[in-house]
Specification:
- About 70% of the residues lie in helices and about 0% in strands.
- It has seven helices and no strands.
- The longest helix has 26 residues.
- The chain is mostly helical.
- The termini are far apart.
- About 30% of the residues are buried.
Length: about 150
């Protein structure tokens, strides 16, 4: 029986544990779940189009959790910076779409500064926990933000 290298074992572990880390909902899905369905804006075609697009962010979040960790591990860390940059960009994209959901469906919009702060906090939390932004929990980021804004 062949002995697996540390990189192979780590990659297999990340592929097995990745789905558990990806269980967190995207920002778009969270924004959609917080909407008041009785708001007149909720029934508009613009709102419904935004709501229909939320699933893509959940898929992206799952993919980047599993794929990003695997890429970093298999590359021996060489792809850490590109994976981090990609995850920051995808997180910003998700925040932007969550804000569009709020705008078109009657939710609470966030300013560009708030979005930038949340994306930066998520990236910093990912680096601090060694996850490179691939599995940082929204709840942990929200907790961190709430304690630093007091």
């Amino acid at each position: 029986m062949a002995v697996w290298s540390l990189a192979k074992r780590s990659a297999v572990f990340s592929l097995l544990i990745g789905p558990l880390l990806a269980g967190c909902a995207s920002h778009s899905t969270t924004a959609a779940l917080q909407l008041d369905t009785k708001n007149p804006k909720y029934a508009t075609p613009e709102c419904q189009a935004q709501l229909d697009a939320t699933g893509i962010h959940d898929g992206i979040r799952s993919g980047r959790t599993i794929g990003g960790a695997g890429l970093v591990i298999l590359s021996g860390g060489l792809l850490a910076i590109p994976v981090l940059a990609a995850n920051v960009g995808l997180d910003a994209y998700d925040h932007r779409d969550a804000n569009l959901i709020a705008r078109y469906c009657g939710g609470q919009e966030k300013s560009a500064e708030q979005i930038a702060s949340e994306v930066g906090t998520s990236a910093a939390l990912g680096i601090a926990t060694g996850q490179l932004g691939v599995g940082a929990s929204s709840a942990a980021g929200a907790t961190l933000r709430s304690t630093t804004n007091k």
